[in-house]
Amino acid sequence: DGMLAIAKDINSDMNNKDVKGVVLVLNKKYSEDVRYFLSLTVKDDKPLVIIPYDYNNGSPDYKVAQAKKYIDKELDKTDNADNQLPEGFLVNVNDYMIFDIADTKRLDNIDIVYDYVGIDADALYKKMYLNDAIVIVSSTADGELSEELSEAVSGKNAGIVVVSCSEDAYMKGDFADCGDSIFYTDISPTKARIMLALLLDNNSDSDTFKNAFTRRRV
Question: Whole domain around residue 78: which residue ranges?
Answer without folding.
Answer: 2-91
